[in-house]
Each structure stands twice: as structure tokens, then as C-alpha cells.
Design brief:
Layout lengths: L26 H9 L3 E11 L10 E4 L2 E4 L4 E2 L7 E2 L4 E3 L2 H5 L25 E9 L9 E9 L21 E2 L2 E5 L1 E10 L7 E7 L17 E13 L2 E8 L13 H6 L2 E8 L11 E3 L4 E4 L28 E10 L4 E9 L8 E7 L17 E5 L4 E8 L4 H5 L6 E2 L2 E10 L2 E13 L4
Parallel strand pairs: 11-13, 18-23
Antiparallel strand pairs: 1-25, 2-3, 3-6, 4-5, 4-7, 7-8, 8-11, 9-10, 11-12, 13-14, 14-15, 15-16, 16-17, 18-19, 19-20, 20-21, 22-24, 24-25
Length: 444
């Protein structure tokens, strides 16, 4: 569902009513303390508008003393048109980089799309997270975790490999009855020069054709299935991938389709791969299956149960026109709270309708021990803007001495951070910040 910046007119059919924003004070803060989650509040701040194209999580890293960001889209896309919007910009701190004008962005050298039938990069990509190799003291070795979208036209089914998609009963996409829905996958690219040139290393995880949800059941105008919109963090010897799970939890069969079963296998999931396997990732990742990281990279995993929305509270399947699931996680380690923080959106209708942002916490630093990758608090409402679609929330560092000295990024933050989110209305689409999020240790 990644879109070009001008396309918003088809996306506003079902925005919810609610409060302009909900911070955490009064009864809301009491509710947090009762559940043992950290306290927090939104503080209105000077409006910051980002001046280039963003349609994903903001990927970034400190390369020596330079703060570098990687927004945008690159590659072939028969629905929206081919794109060369994936660019980078620099600053002496985060605020300076975010203030760059469009003319200040530079296009990196990217791997080309390969012809149909050849191994390599197919479809368009968006960088969602940059992991910085800690063994390279220059800071120039980067691994980009990318969201990748394809269609039956760009990745037709190959019976020899099981890769690709069959254009039969294919669900509708975002631009009208004749437009196809995309399928998302997640891959890895590598740079050894600080992000100025990238090499495709292959897929992190994906779902294959049997898990696609087709007509007549898929009426969401979102994805046919797949895995996407990720955020990745390092813990121990692994890179942990938190991502949206949009496929059927097993083989889709029109005659035996069960919407409740579909919903039970969707929401935000987690997979992991050894850091030592990032140079050759294909087939190496394992997805959480409810007991451990046992499911293969293209197998059926299990979502994080605490992040799912119960049916009694409006939860539903990704293929449903009424939605009812969290998506688009953005995960960071908070050095002040000593815990993980996750922001996420909420889909409530077709075409990714949803006007709210939610927050969850995990106090376990080591995500590999026992069930600790699953120990997320029940998401709470952080921000609601009726009349908007809110996508891709993230917390970003500022230009404080603490942020600069500790080289904070969206993956590692302190007590205060900027909240950025993509705001979409029919007449415009903007990636901006209007609030600072401040945490406090007043738990229980």
C-alpha cells in the first residue's frame, strides 16, 4: 500500500471521529500505572514539516559525525509508476537532516531491477530500518531492511521455485476496480560506503502464493497478502524484525475460507536472523511460531498476541473492508526507561483507513530469552486526528546535547523524542511532527 505522494483522494472513505490527541495525564496516566507500563505525555511543539518524499519508516544512521536519513521509494511499479525517490540527506544532527530541502537530497547507487525470470531485485523497495555493523569502526557498513512490493505482472508465478503470483481471482488494489493489489516482502541490502551505494543481498522473509487471500473474500483494497512495513532492532547476536502479517495462516482455500482463522494469524509478528547471516540472508531467518523462532522464513508464523485486537474490540482480518488490526511498527530502545518502545498504526477500513497511533512497551532487553520477544503491553492510544489517515509513526532524536553525544537515532532514544507521522488527507500528504513525546518512570 505504499503510495506516491500525490495519491490520496481514494483513501479517506472511513476515517473515525475522536479526540485531536490523547496524551497520558489524569485518568489515562492512572490506567498506565495500574498496568505497570511507563508513563508518557505528548507535548505540543513547533510544527516541523519534512521536505522530501516519505512513505515508510524513516531509516537512518550516524556515519562518523554525520546523521544520514534514507527516505523514499525506488524501483519498478506498474501501478504507481517507476520511482527514483529513494535518496539520502545529511546533517550535523537529526533536526538539521530533517530540515533539508528536496534539492539537498542525493540519489544513491541502487541495484537495477532484473528481467522477469531472473534472480535479483523485482518490484519497488522502501528502506525501513538501517542496521549499522558494530564491527566496522568507520560506521560505513550498513544493512538496509527494505519493504518490497510486487504484482503478478512483475513477479509471475514460477512453478519450479514456487516464487511469484498467479493472476487469477486477484484482489483489487488502491486505484480502482481494475488495479491489482500488491504483495509485500522484506529483504536486505548492504552498503560499505555509508549508504552511497547499495548491493541487494536477498530476502529476509516472504509469503508464497498459497497464502494469498483472493476474491471473493479479499475486499480490503490493501494487500493480497505478504509481510511488510517492518522495523528491525539488534538484540544479542540477532536482528529482530517486527512486521505486518497480511497473509492467510495456512493455505488459502476459497471453499474452506474462515475469516476468524485469517484474523487469528495476523497483526504484528516477529522474526529474527543472526547478524552473521546478513550477508547471505535467504533462507536463514526464522519466524515466531507461538513457541519459539521455529517457522522458516517463508512459513507460517504466529503474531504477537498482546498486539492483536480482540473481535469484541473491533478486531478483524486484513482482507476485510472494516479492518481491525495494528500495523506498521516502529521499535526503539529507550535508554531512559531501559525498555523497548513500539509505535504502530491501526487499520479500521478499506485502503488503510485509520486516524490513530498507538504505543506499547516491552521491558525485556534481551528479546531472545524465553517469551521475551512477545512480552509487549496492550497498545494504548497515543494520538488521534479525525479526518486524517495516520501512517508510519516514529520517534526521532532532536538536537539536544544528549541526543548528539549519544548519537541517538530512531532505534535508540532518550527521555524525550520528536513524534513524526505521515498525515494524509485528499488534498495533501505530509510527513510532519507536531509533538514531543516525553517519558517518565512513574510506573505502578
Amino acid at each position: 500500500m505504499k503510495t506516491q505522494k500525490h495519491l490520496v483522494t481514494t483513501l479517506l472513505a472511513g476515517a473515525l471521529a475522536g479526540l485531536l490527541f490523547i496524551g497520558c495525564s489524569g485518568k489515562k496516566e492512572d490506567d498506565q500505572k495500574a498496568e505497570g507500563t511507563p508513563a508518557y505525555k505528548l507535548i505540543p511543539a513547533k510544527r516541523v514539516l519534512f521536505n522530501s518524499f516519505v512513505d515508510c519508516n524513516m531509516a537512518e544512521a550516524w556515519v562518523s559525525d554525520t546523521f544520514r536519513i534514507f527516505p523514499g521509494k525506488y524501483g519498478e511499479d506498474p501501478l504507481w509508476g517507476n520511482a527514483r525517490d529513494l535518496k539520502y540527506a545529511d546533517g550535523k544532527n537529526a533536526e538539521e537532516a530533517f530540515a533539508r530541502q528536496g534539492k539537498d537530497f542525493t540519489e544513491p547507487q541502487m541495484p537495477p531491477n532484473v528481467p522477469i525470470g531472473q534472480a535479483g531485485l523485482h518490484g519497488a523497495v522502501w528502506f525501513e530500518t538501517v542496521y549499522q555493523d558494530t564491527t566496522d569502526k568507520s560506521g560505513k557498513t550498513l544493512y538496509a531492511v527494505y519493504h518490497n512490493e510486487n504484482y503478478p505482472a512483475t513477479l509471475p508465478y514460477d512453478p519450479k521455485t514456487g516464487e511469484g503470483y498467479i493472476d487469477k481471482k486477484w484482489p483489487q488494489g488502491l486505484t480502482g476496480p481494475t488495479s491489482p493489489a500488491a504483495v509485500c516482502r522484506i529483504g536486505i541490502m548492504k552498503s560499505t560506503n555509508g549508504g552511497k551505494a547499495w548491493e541487494n543481498k536477498g530476502l529476509f522473509i516472504e509469503d508464497l502464493q498459497p497464502r494469498m487471500i483472493l476474491k471473493p473474500h479479499n475486499t480490503s483494497k490493501t494487500f493480497a497478502g505478504g509481510v511488510g512495513d517492518p522495523s528491525a532492532v539488534a538484540s544479542g547476536d540477532y536482528l529482530y524484525l517486527f512486521y505486518g502479517e497480511y497473509g492467510y495462516p495456512g493455505q488459502y482455500d476459497e471453499a474452506r475460507y474462515d475469516r476468524k482463522k485469517e484474523s487469528s494469524g495476523q497483526c504484528i509478528s516477529v522474526a529474527r536472523i543472526k547478524l552473521s547471516d546478513l550477508d547471505n540472508p535467504v533462507g536463514k531467518a526464522r519466524r515466531w511460531d507461538g513457541k519459539g523462532f521455529n517457522a522458516p522464513y517463508n512459513g507460517v508464523g504466529a503474531p504477537i498476541a498482546s498486539l492483536q485486537i480482540p473481535e469484541s474490540e473491533g478486531g478483524g482480518a486484513a482482507s476485510s473492508p472494516t479492518g481491525g488490526f495494528h500495523w506498521g511498527p516502529s521499535v526503539s530502545w529507550n535508554t531512559y526507561l531501559n525498555c523497548w518502545v513500539m509505535l504502530m498504526g491501526k487499520v479500521v477500513g478499506q485502503s488503510w483507513a485509520g486516524s490513530s497511533i498507538h504505543i506499547s512497551f516491552n521491558t525485556n532487553r534481551d528479546l531472545g530469552e524465553a517469551l521475551q520477544s512477545q512480552a509487549w503491553s496492550k497498545p494504548k492510544l497515543l494520538l488521534d486526528k479525525p479526518g486524517f489517515f495516520l501512517w508510519y509513526p516514529s520517534l526521532q532524536p532532536m538536537n539536544t546535547p544528549d541526543d548528539i553525544a549519544n548519537k541517538h537515532t530512531c532505534l535508540r532514544l532518550g527521555q524525550r523524542a520528536r513524534l513524526f507521522v505521515k498525515n494524509i488527507k485528499p488534498e495533501k500528504s505530509e510527513y510532519l511532527s507536531e509533538y514531543i513525546l516525553e517519558f517518565s518512570k512513574g510506573t505502578n
